[in-house]
Automatic annotation (TrEMBL):
UniProt GO molecular function: ubiquitin protein ligase activity; zinc ion binding
Spans through the membrane: none
Top EC category: transferase
RING-type domain: residues covered: 1-87
Keyword Zinc: yes
PROSITE patterns cross-referenced by the UniProt entry: TRIAD
Record organism: Oryctolagus cuniculus (Rabbit)
Protein name per its UniProtKB record: E3 ubiquitin-protein ligase parkin
Pathway assigned in UniProt: Protein modification; protein ubiquitination
Amino acid sequence: TAEGSGGGTEQAYRVDERAAELARWEEASKDTIQKTTKPCPRCHVPVEKNGGCMHMKCPQSQCRLEWCWHCGCEWNRTCMGDHWFDV
């Protein structure tokens, strides 16, 4: 709404605090997902590594690709020998 005194115009805005908080959480979630996951090389679903070796298995039932977290290739003997436990 515009209210004036002396010819000036002021705008009054209401901030929906709940919507603003949800938007902040959504952005924080996106940042965390980007920092802690890598996409499956085949289906691109985000996969989180929370410990263990570099041998990953896609959690999507229709994919289940076994792949290397380190190099992103399908899991193979080179991965097993060269960087099984890289950090």
